[in-house]
Every structure is written in C-alpha cells, then in structure tokens.
C-alpha cells in the first residue's frame, strides 16, 4: 500500500461505503439517500479511491444528528462491514490462517502492527498508536471522524466495531472492544481497548 503521507486529509472509502447497506437495512434506502445526497455521496463514491476526510466526518456527524435513535446501531453495522471487507480483500488468507493458529498472546501483536501500518486508511490525518496487551490499547489522537464534535459519551462506534471484528476473527473469538476515552468528550485522544480474557 502507498505511504500515508501521500494521502493527506483523506480516508478510506469504507468509512462511507459500509454505512450505505447498514442504513438501507436499518433506516431504509430513502433515508440513506436523503442523508448521503447533500454531501455528494449519492451515487456512492468510487470504492478504489480515498475520500476527503472532512466530507466523511460531515457524513458521520449528519448521521448522528439526523438519526440519533439509529446512529449507533448503523455505525456498528458499518464497522463490522468494514472489518469483513478488510478480511475478504486486504489480509491474505494464508496470513489469516496463521494468525488463527497462533495463541492469542502471539497473534495480537502481529495484528496490532498490521493495523498500525495501514491505520491511515481509516484514521486519515489522525495519529494512531498502540500498546500491546491484553488488553491491546489503540490511541487515536485528533480523530478526523469526530473532529470538532462534543458529546457526553464516546462516539466512535464505527472504529470500535472495526477493531472488534478483526480481533474476534483473527486473535480470539471472545475479543471485545470498547472506547474508554473520546475526543468528543474532551479527552486528548480516543482510546480503544480490546480484551479477550472474559
């Protein structure tokens, strides 16, 4: 994959594309098109091209504002879809088989390094770092998806679902992700913990 420095202020298309089927299923195609069209996402964007992260952030923000009753459920479904897309298209099947065969304590650092290497595709200009676990802790500073937003509770359900899907499929089936801090609540960075010891 290309170096993230060449993708300034851009984020991977799954941050938009996976919202579409989730919205169609949960809120209806009409609601999705009404949300997507004003932001230039109807028709859907090219699945091979990176997208301006400010437009992606505007879409996620509009989802939360216009569909507060379903936004969390839609974001989780979209994150799961993104994880499934990565598993189907971005991680070689041989590597997946190897990770699943390893004990979780060995598979987790390998997957963590792979996520850090390609984090720019779903973190844009945010800064992603990680600490080995368990729990594995990812920290995303200046998260562009929620940049400038304020909320009483963490908002990054899409990111949580992506992390959980990848770790549950490749590290341990009981892997569970939770956002323990969020820029939207005033924290210096969004913090995600993934644990499987329960």
Q: How far from one another are the termini? A: 35 Å
- Runs in which pLDDT lies below 50 for 5 or more consecutive residues are 1-7
Radius of gyration in whole Å, from Cα?
16 Å
Shape: globular
Could you describe the largest sheet, including whether it forms a barrel? 4 strands, antiparallel
Query: How many individual β-strands?
Result: 6
Beta-strand content bin:
5-15%
Helix content estimate: 40-55%
Average of pLDDT: 93
Listing every helix as H and every strand as E from the N terminus to the C terminus, the arrangement reads EHHHEHHHHHEEHEE
Strand order of the largest sheet: 3-4-6-5
| Separate helix tally | 9
Q: Which structural class is indicated by helix and strand composition?
A: alpha+beta
Brief description of this entry?
By secondary structure, this protein is an alpha+beta fold. The protein has helices at residues 14-17, 19-26, 29-36, 53-66, 71-89, 93-101, 104-117, 120-123, 157-170, and strands at 10-11, 51-52, 127-131, 136-141, 176-181, 190-195.
Secondary structure: elements and pairs:
Layout: E1 10-11, H1 14-17, H2 19-26, H3 29-36, E2 51-52, H4 53-66, H5 71-89, H6 93-101, H7 104-117, H8 120-123, E3 127-131, E4 136-141, H9 157-170, E5 176-181, E6 190-195
Antiparallel strand pairs: 1-2, 3-4, 4-6, 5-6
Helix pairs in contact: 2-3, 2-5, 5-9, 6-7
